[in-house]
């Protein structure tokens, strides 16, 4: 049937879209992690240069303070993206299950038409 064929195509599109969204989240998390590591490296260099490693010290470098805050913000964003990733993985699994059902219906209908 034509409607089942379009249903299968729709479900395939949905699965591909969910995969793309999941990959995009993973890429963002990896990029944020890379940026946070780079900031940590810069913080370490700044602390070595100033000789002060205590962020509460009155003479702690302003750049290191700002970089630490940005790195912390990136870590918060990564945690939030992990929650979104978990939801995206569930949505992908559901879409794959829907696709499997639609494909099975299409195959069943195809074999019924072949017998008739």
TrEMBL record:
- Which chain positions lie within coiled-coil regions? 15-105
Keywords (alphabetical) are: Cell projection, Cilium, Coiled coil, Flagellum
Q: What is this protein called?
A: Flagellar export protein FliJ
